[in-house]
């Protein structure tokens, strides 16, 4: 019923009864973020190398925005997953490759952890983009995590030196916020049991059955319109390149 009064781009997929003491923030087992980006001009293997260095518990003071009002005393956070993979532009992952160019047009950086600092994901992504563009080596990620001179970090692998010690955060622009999505907040089974409405009114059932109110159909229509806009933009860009050839970029897109 709530979906009928919400904007089309905001959908409720399921709900759960909760205990009065439940906190959506503090009861979270882990958070999973996704950051989508174009691979154009980027070395994906180098970015994957750097991302792998994030897994585990580290001090992320060089990879976040310091908020003085929060008076944070510990910058150690635990990362459970950090990997980069191609992202499909189709809702059905089984779509045949013949429908699109075999080369992935979009990649996604998946980052999951038990907790995050302010703008931590965007700072991490900014460094990954710099590494992908060849402006920094993958070992710089290890260096940014190496902040304690009393417990210096060991080499990430046997064939490379120990990372430099970085006790002060370097100046760099964090990645753009638009491609960043908080994809999932995981809760224990004792806290949350997701469900849909089984007992709906006749009016709700009729509305859900109609093509214009079906949740899946609405989201599919939004996806289709976005694909069309993307194709239109690509054609306009191709037309513009005839008279205005692209200039080499000093920074990868997403760092601005």
UniProtKB/TrEMBL annotation:
UniProt superkingdom: Eukaryota
Enzyme Commission designation: 5.4.99.12
Catalytic activity: uridine(38/39/40) in tRNA = pseudouridine(38/39/40) in tRNA
GO biological process assignments: mRNA pseudouridine synthesis; tRNA pseudouridine synthesis
InterPro entries in the cross-refs: PsdUridine_synth_cat_dom_sf, PsdUridine_synth_TruA, PsdUridine_synth_TruA_a/b_dom, PsdUridine_synth_TruA_C
GO cellular component: cytoplasm; nucleus
EC category name: isomerase
RNA-binding in keyword set: no
GO terms of molecular function: RNA binding; tRNA pseudouridine(38-40) synthase activity
Keywords in alphabetical order: Isomerase, tRNA processing
Domain Pseudouridine synthase I TruA alpha/beta: 50-187
Family statement drawn from the similarity comment of this UniProt entry: Belongs to the tRNA pseudouridine synthase TruA family.
Protein name: tRNA pseudouridine synthase
Species for this entry: Phellinidium pouzarii
